Structures are given as structure tokens and as C-alpha cells.
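Module 6 notes. Inverse folding takes a fixed backbone as the condition and produces residue identities as the prediction. Think of it as a translation problem where the source language is geometry and the target language is the twenty amino acids. Below is one complete input and output pair. Work through it position by position during the lab.
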């Protein structure tokens, strides 16, 4: 199912993993990706992680999970010490409590 990311508004494809969870992937195939996607018999887009035991099949294409390429998410991950406005860190309180 094609959609757009809520954070960066880029196009994404929602897939269903083997565990039944939803995974957003970038719409263009990428050889560096780790999500093999294909369309099953019902038309649903499925995804899985290829392994040595079950490598990429001919009907699957590698795509990059969107969480790895989303500019909004990567900016948030790059600044681990900063919190959004209105959010208080409880680290100091937790350190005091452990003593």
C-alpha cells in the first residue's frame, strides 16, 4: 500500500512482515537494503529479512526500511542528548533514587 511518511512526507510502501507487523519501506529498490519485498497472491505487499538459509528469491526485490532513511528520524537519532520542547529528562532523578 503506497502512502507518505507522517514526518518527512516522502512516499513509502507499507508492507506486512512474516510476524504480521507493518513495516514502511522506501518505494525504490536498493541493493543496500535489508528488506525483501514481494506481492503475495492476495495482492498484499509482504516483507522479510533475507538470510543465509533463505536468500533473496527471484520474485523479491531489496528495499531499504524507511526508518533508516527518513531525514526526520535520522536527525532525532543524531542528537541523542536533546529532548523535544516540554519534555524533561528523568536521568538525574533516577540517579539519586539508586543511591
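Target side of the pair, the amino acids:
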Amino acid at each position: 500500500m503506497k502512502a507518505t511518511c507522517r514526518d518527512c512526507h516522502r512516499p513509502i510502501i507499507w508492507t506486512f512482515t512474516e510476524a504480521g507487523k507493518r513495516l514502511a519501506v522506501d518505494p525504490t529498490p536498493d541493493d543496500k537494503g535489508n528488506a525483501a519485498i514481494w506481492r503475495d497472491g492476495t495482492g498484499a505487499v509482504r516483507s522479510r529479512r533475507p538470510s543465509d538459509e533463505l536468500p533473496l528469491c527471484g520474485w523479491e526485490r531489496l528495499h531499504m526500511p524507511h526508518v533508516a532513511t527518513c531525514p526526520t528520524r535520522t536527525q532525532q537519532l543524531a542528537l541523542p542528548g536533546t529532548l523535544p520542547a516540554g519534555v524533561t529528562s528523568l536521568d538525574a532523578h533516577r540517579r539519586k533514587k539508586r543511591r
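Reference fact for the lab report: The mean pLDDT is 85.
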